[in-house]
């Protein structure tokens, strides 16, 4: 049931959910901007430092849904506060210790509670607004993660270069504490629904047609992160750019992802299946330009922008296609795109790291091109997939389009 509040309080609640998404997104991507600093300080290889990205993504992709299912009977307010608190504790690990293994474990935990936060924040946001504004409320939370790439990651990287990479994580902890205090004051109670139908929805949410489309998202983001995870070393070795100038490329990437995530909704409404094809092709072409002309700083910047724009431009289309294809399983299936994206991030960071160790940093980008080709093929192959024509009456649920 929707519980409406005064507009001013609703705005404050949505703002703190946005802030939570923003700070969690910053922590997730900080490793990308400071991968070289982390590798040197922890005395590990670049690919080992890249495994920190993989750990966070796997935690979100696997741990997020598991935690959400396990805590489904708890009030969403308690879940959100617990998730923020666990997030803060997890990010204290790199601040207080120099143990690489412990850092990897902490990143898995951080990813899991991040996924839990996303699910609980979506429920809370759609509970406090009228049904006709539910989509915009969810988009605001997604926008928090998009803005973390556009603003938070470059600023955190600059801070890390100035005072050390641990200082950036200390900043995340400090902001997280502020968010936790405000959240404790303003978040309303949101009791769990009396309906526990996840198991019944599972056969629709995990149907072959839905999994096939989720595979498109996995491959597209794997292609992106195979290159972007190791962008700083690429810029150093190929483009000849380091320090604050290299950080500007992260800003370019972040702005592109923000534009793509917000603008992608319009294309999803027009033709989601086609948008997935165009997005995969765009990522592949952008990475090809980066490999061929990456020595030119301007062209490299344009290629990085293209990767972020085309890749994140597919986000709304994946969500649209998955919810449409899942039918009665749409409520459960709507949580799966985030898992697919983060599984792709994990795969991309791992595959790029293996390629880097074998043949150098350019090989990581070439690996991304190969994954983009696979994503294009998968997007084309699934473009004709349609929802089941008939659904048993007992399984029908109302799904907002």
From TrEMBL:
Gene3D superfamilies noted in UniProt: MFS general substrate transporter like domains
Sequence intervals crossing the membrane: 12-35, 47-71, 78-96, 102-125, 137-163, 169-190, 210-232, 244-265, 272-292, 298-318, 330-355, 361-381
Pfam families hit by this protein: MFS_1 (PF07690)
SUPFAM superfamilies: MFS general substrate transporter
Protein location: Cell membrane
Membrane topology: Multi-pass membrane protein
Annotated Major facilitator superfamily (MFS) profile domain residues: 13-390
Primary site of residence: membrane
Sorted UniProt keywords: Cell membrane, Membrane, Transmembrane, Transmembrane helix
PANTHER family: PURINE EFFLUX PUMP PBUE
Protein name, entry field: MFS transporter
